[in-house]
Design goal:
Length: 64
């Protein structure tokens, strides 16, 4: 298992043209937008990525 912070993960998708949705561990949405917008909002970048996938053209990331 490799621990990765959301900031590190989203930097890999910095040229992603679509939206990403960040969900908490219960799959409740926290924030939605392009990766640079998400990282500019608060202290969410330090959260640990638990899982991710692409659904309906959107990058979905679960964090804890």
């Amino acid at each position: 298992r490799i621990d990765m912070r959301l900031e590190e993960f989203l930097e890999m998708y910095d040229n992603w043209n679509g939206d990403a949705v960040i969900n908490d561990d219960e799959l409740n949405p926290i924030i939605r937008g392009n990766p640079s917008y998400i990282l500019s909002c608060g202290n969410i970048g330090g959260k640990e990525v638990v899982a991710f996938g692409f659904y309906d053209g959107e990058l979905a990331v679960r964090v804890k």
